[in-house]
């Protein structure tokens, strides 16, 4: 990969100081190509969400290099859209206004904000929900609005931290299919954190398995399953074999070094 979209080199991160210092990420090296969909998986406490938060510019790090398109990441920016498990919608604004709020921050005028917001509500299949408030939306609908908002200002990367983790199984599958369709149409780089290996295999081009004690990259898997993907692919032998191999790698990576 000659010119990665995202480049992480020798990244280290710890919390606390002195005797209370805890190393949470050690020597993370990871490149993401333009338009690549990469999932981070691993047991709780391996640092997946911390790493994504650092890429988002929401946390600092101790040492290493981190850049997007060759420019160092120092703080949050409109070049990265972020979607969390919690919907983070402003409850006093409608679905349309939540998206417009982000677009105003990006410097768009009122008419442009309205046009782009409605376009993106249509993109996530919520064209008739523009005037509804978050309290009037289901969990899946709230997450659709959050995705629409994150995509509306045309970020270079989409960072997603367990975005479907709070949804029921049926809604989760619907959201996975929606995200796949959006990604196939618009082709942007995605870094996706999940505990669900089936979800990682279904969505990703590459899966990165992280281990604990401290958090570090243990293995990567290329997902050589033809796109476009639909739910039926989950029943294929290739899909199930890869799912088993990733589960095995996570079990092995969950053993702390002193246990190995």
Automatic annotation (TrEMBL):
Give the signal peptide as a residue range, or say none if absent. none
**Pfam families named in the record:** ABC_tran (PF00005)
| Gene3D superfamilies named in the record | P-loop containing nucleotide triphosphate hydrolases
Keywords linked to the UniProt accession:
ATP-binding, Cell membrane, Membrane, Nucleotide-binding, Transport
Q: Where in or outside the cell?
A: Cell membrane
What GO terms are given for molecular function? ATP binding; ATP hydrolysis activity
Listed under GO cellular component are:
plasma membrane
Q: What is its main location?
A: membrane
The way it spans or sits in the membrane comes to:
Peripheral membrane protein
TM spans (from-to): none
Q: The ABC transporter domain covers which part of the protein?
A: 6-237
Query: Hey, which family's this protein in?
Result: Belongs to the ABC transporter superfamily.
This chain's protein is named ABC transporter ATP-binding protein
What is the species of this protein?
Mesorhizobium atlanticum
């Amino acid at each position: 990969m000659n010119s990665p979209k995202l480049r992480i080199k020798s990244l280290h991160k710890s919390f606390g100081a002195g005797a209370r210092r805890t190393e949470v990420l050690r020597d993370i090296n990871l490149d993401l190509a333009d338009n690549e969909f990469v999932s981070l998986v691993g047991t709780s406490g391996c640092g997946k969400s911390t790493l994504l938060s650092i890429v988002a510019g929401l946390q600092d790090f101790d040492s290493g290099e981190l850049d997007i398109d060759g420019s160092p990441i120092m703080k949050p920016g409109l070049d990265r859209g972020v979607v969390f498990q919690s919907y983070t919608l402003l409850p006093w604004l409608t679905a349309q206004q939540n998206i417009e709020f982000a677009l105003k921050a990006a410097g768009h005028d009122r008419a442009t904000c309205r046009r782009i917001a409605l376009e993106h509500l249509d993109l996530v299949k919520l064209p008739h929900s523009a005037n509804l408030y978050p309290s009037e939306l289901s969990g899946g609908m709230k997450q659709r609005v959050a995705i629409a908002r994150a995509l509306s200002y045309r970020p270079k990367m989409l960072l997603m931290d367990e975005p479907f983790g709070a949804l029921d199984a049926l809604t989760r599958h619907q959201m996975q299919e929606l995200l796949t369709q959006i990604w196939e149409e618009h082709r942007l780089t995605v870094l996706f954190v999940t505990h669900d290996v089936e979800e990682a295999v279904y969505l990703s081009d590459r899966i990165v398995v992280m281990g604990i004690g401290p958090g570090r990259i243990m293995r990567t898997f290329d997902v050589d399953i033809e796109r476009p993907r639909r739910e039926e692919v989950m029943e294929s032998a290739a899909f199930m074999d890869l799912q088993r191999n990733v589960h095995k790698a996570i079990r092995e990576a969950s053993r702390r070094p002193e246990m190995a």
